[in-house]
């Protein structure tokens, strides 16, 4: 069996055009465009690339994009002051502070300082708690994008066995919550998990978010399973995921490529969340 390739670029393009339509409606209703502020601390080259593509996609969707750059040696207090100013800025609906932050900064304190209603990354503890308890929440963009890709293959996920590999607050934990919300039976595996291959061989759905290039082997995949690869690893061989794609594509039923899978969905979901935050702030219906 050869897997079908899940075209994240195409799904993301459809979502971006739906967001653009929603932005036009929002503008007609409120007389303003949603605004997204992205904060970058330091000059990490890869981060600069993401920030640029986010800014381009934001403007293409009809939203206002604002970028703030602080030097790598900026004081935590300067970043906190910037976050406070963005919280208070009526033109700003979404705030994204690019992670990771330099090691002298307390990322958790910064995340907790963002107004939860503007937390388009969904990383604030209030949003994590709302997601976990089934309340309306801003949901982290990467897991939300993964769920949309899964739904494009499985109209219903109910009763499927899902294994999420990775337990980060950014991907693994919220991904598990979303899958639980879809009535999957969810396992969160991580670096201490015993016999990961055996657990994966029982999984209908695998979400790989470990950050280890090509760690998950093709013969760990159950024939016909759906594999979502969150990994973005820059290696000598180029950009690769956390899954050995060449091996897994021979066994899986459907699989996301890297690049062109989850990454484009993350950006499209960021725009979606910004529109959602703007609609909620202005009390108009969110059309998506
Ligand atoms: N607060 C915060 N929120 C984030 O969402 C966040 C962050 N910090 N820090 C960095 C990571 C990384 N990230 C990516 C988004 C899109 C692609 C993406 O679109 N990748 C393309 C192209 C990759 C390439 O060619 O470089 C693809 O996979 O096809 C990748 C990576 C968001 N992040
Ligand atoms: Mg881990």
Automatic annotation (TrEMBL):
Segments forming domain Tetrahydrofolate dehydrogenase/cyclohydrolase catalytic: 6-121
> Which GO BP terms sit in this record?
L-histidine biosynthetic process; methionine biosynthetic process; purine nucleotide biosynthetic process; tetrahydrofolate interconversion
What is the recorded function of this protein according to its Swiss-Prot or TrEMBL entry?
Answer: Catalyzes the oxidation of 5,10-methylenetetrahydrofolate to 5,10-methenyltetrahydrofolate and then the hydrolysis of 5,10-methenyltetrahydrofolate to 10-formyltetrahydrofolate.
Q: In which pathway does it act?
A: One-carbon metabolism; tetrahydrofolate interconversion
Q: Report a single Gene Ontology molecular function.
A: methylenetetrahydrofolate dehydrogenase (NADP+) activity
Q: Where does this protein hold NADP(+)?
A: 166-168, 232
Positions of transmembrane segments? none
NADP found in the keyword field: yes
A Pfam match is THF_DHG_CYH_C
- The identity of this protein, by name, is Bifunctional protein FolD
Q: Which reaction does it catalyse?
A: (6R)-5,10-methenyltetrahydrofolate + H2O = (6R)-10-formyltetrahydrofolate + H(+); (6R)-5,10-methylene-5,6,7,8-tetrahydrofolate + NADP(+) = (6R)-5,10-methenyltetrahydrofolate + NADPH
Gene name per UniProt? folD
Keywords noted in UniProt: Amino-acid biosynthesis, Histidine biosynthesis, Hydrolase, Methionine biosynthesis, Multifunctional enzyme, NADP, One-carbon metabolism, Oxidoreductase, Purine biosynthesis
**Of which family is this protein a member?**
Belongs to the tetrahydrofolate dehydrogenase/cyclohydrolase family.
């Amino acid at each position: 069996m050869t897997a079908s390739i899940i075209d994240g670029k195409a799904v993301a393009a459809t979502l971006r055009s739906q967001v653009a339509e929603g932005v036009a409606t929002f503008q007609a209703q409120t007389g303003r465009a949603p605004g997204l502020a992205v904060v970058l601390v330091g000059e990490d080259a890869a981060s600069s690339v993401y920030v640029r593509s986010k800014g381009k996609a934001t403007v293409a969707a009809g939203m206002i994009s604002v970028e703030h750059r602080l030097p790598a040696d900026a004081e935590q207090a300067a970043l906190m002051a910037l976050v406070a100013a963005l919280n208070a800025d009526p033109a700003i609906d979404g705030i994204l502070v690019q992670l990771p932050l330099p090691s002298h900064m307390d990322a958790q304190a910064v995340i907790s300082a963002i107004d939860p209603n503007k937390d388009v990354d969904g990383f604030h503890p209030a949003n994590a708690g709302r997601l976990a308890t089934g309340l309306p929440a801003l949901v982290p963009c990467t897991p939300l994008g993964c769920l949309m890709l899964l739904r494009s293959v499985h109209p219903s996920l109910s009763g499927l066995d899902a294994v999420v590999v990775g337990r980060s607050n950014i991907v693994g934990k919220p991904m598990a919550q979303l899958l639980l919300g879809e009535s999957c039976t969810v396992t969160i595996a991580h670096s201490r998990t015993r016999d990961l291959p055996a657990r994966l061989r029982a999984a209908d759905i695998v979400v790989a978010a470990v950050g280890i290039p090509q760690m998950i082997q093709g013969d760990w995949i159950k024939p016909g399973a759906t594999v979502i690869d969150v990994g973005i690893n820059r290696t000598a061989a180029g950009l690769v995921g956390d899954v050995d794609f060449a091996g897994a594509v021979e066994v899986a039923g459907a699989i996301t490529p890297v690049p062109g899978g989850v990454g484009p969905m993350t950006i499209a979901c960021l725009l979606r969340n910004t529109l959602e935050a703007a609609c909620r702030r202005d009390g108009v219906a969110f059309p998506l």
